[in-house]
Amino acid sequence: MGATDDLPTDDLPTGDLPTGVPIHRLAAALAAVDGVVGVCLGGSRARGTHRPDSDTDLGLYYRGPLDTGALRELAARAAGRPVEVTEPGGWGPWVDGGAWLTVGGARIDFIYRDLDRVRHHWDEARAGRYATGVQAGHPLGFHAHAYPGELALGRVLADPTGELARLRAEVVHYPAALGAALVATARWEAPFTLANAAKAPHDTAYVHGCLFRVVGLLAHALHGRAGRWLINEKGAVDAAGRLPGAPADFARRAHGLFRTDAAAALAEAAALTGEALADG
User: Fold this and answer.
1) 232-262 confidence digits (pLDDT tens)
2) Which residues form the Polymerase nucleotidyl transferase domain (predicted)?
């Protein structure tokens, strides 16, 4: 395993990590584990939108068998205590697995990404196709085009073969066919969902579930039309409201749907849908 032998437990942060950990040194140690192709900084820290208490997400892009024993040893060395490290698939069908560490009082997440799967869904996105699956922590459903989107919005930290950098150079170009597909889906599904919600106005949970679905569809459609990657529901509404072509005051109006009675919320959601998906 080699690389973990050099990983200190007492000089964890300098550079980009909030913990004192030299981020490139940690990434290099992870990339030296059998099966790991490269490591990418993701989430708000990669985009520069983080808060002081934000997690540090490290995407571990792997291929074939992954030496989770070596990852477990490395994680324990960095954290100064045993850390639970999952096998691939340990967190569900779409978020492969990984580990949650606390190092120097800060949270660092290892998140597995099957590199061949990322490539597959990049090819699908370029063809205007995407899948959505059930995944814990993703109430709207995990959208498979998030895989290339994560890499596009991330920062490659360790890439011994150069494969991650080459793929990232492709995925930074948002596919027009994907954007068109997201808009087309929202055009039929959002009105359909609102029509069903209107049949059960006194079922508050159902109505709010439908409203959440519609808001999510509009956020994805607005990002698709603008050619911007959207990889998570967190912050999606506010981000959509800042896009060119978004309806006036989109974020405030979308959040407000969940603070009013069903009839008013459904009427406003229909108006918002019409504006968000209008041609032009």
Assistant:
1) 898 999 999 999 999 999 999 999 999 989 9
2) 33-67
